[in-house]
Amino acid sequence: MIGMLRGRLWQRGADWLVVDVGGVGYRVFVPTGVLARLPAIGGDVELYVHTHVREDALALYGFLAEEELRLFEELIGVSGVGPRLALTALSALSAEQLRRAVLDEDVGTLTRIPGIGRKTAQRMILELKGRLGRTGATAGVPAPDAAPAADALAALVSLGYSQAEASQALAAAQRDMNGQPADTAKLVRMALRHLAG
Predict the structure, then answer these.
(1) 120 plus 157 within the same structural domain
(2) CB atoms closer than 10 angstroms to residue 175
(3) pLDDT for the residue 191
């Protein structure tokens, strides 16, 4: 199992990146907030990785903080929540927002995540509340940089764009900004320009 990757950022997409480790490129799926905090292509990157193995596929999911990885692993332990839905949840909300929604039993916040309905939100609360409260699975996760990107993604999805379209436009907007901080409104405006073509 792969637990960590350290190498050069070789390529990035809407919800994935490729890390070159000793001449081997590992494709890793990541939340939108991670894409916002990455260096430019060619820069050094270190990711905490969850290796997901199925009969027909092997997929890597990466995070910049170990606490984010732990929350992801807690999420995929919930009945009905697979790795792609867990990744969507961590793209729509920061780790701390997600943790707070579970601990506060805030079904409304959880159902704003694309793909999570009322029953799944209630199941997440039921299965995670004790574990997140006890372990503090996301304590200390720096979320301010990720919050505008997550909010912008949610705004674009609410405007009718698919998760993939919104993520891709948001990633392009973040590349245009060259690592400069931006608020949600600016990210949405720039992403909409990319979506308009």
Answers:
(1) no
(2) 16
(3) 86
**What CATH number did the domain enclosing 109 receive?**
1.10.150.20
Written as six digits, the tokens of 195 are: 């979506």
CA triplet 66, 140, 91: central angle to 5 degrees?
A: 65
Give pLDDT < 50 ranges for the chain: 134-145
**Who contacts 172 (Cβ-Cβ below 8 Å, separation ≥6)?**
191, 194
* Per-residue model confidence (pLDDT) at position 62: 96
Q: Contact, 60 vs 29, CB < 8 A?
A: yes
- Predicted confidence at residue 26, as pLDDT, reads 97
107: CB partners within 8 A, 6+ apart: 118, 121, 122, 125
Q: And the tokens for 64?
A: 């910049």
CB 28 within 8 A of CB 47: yes
| Cα 45–Cα 51–Cα 54 angle in degrees, nearest 5 | 145
* Token output for 36: 């916002």
pLDDT score for 145? 47
Identify the domain containing residue 77 by its residue range: 66-135
CATH number of the domain residue 155 falls in: 1.10.8
Q: Are residues 85 and 128 in the same domain?
A: yes
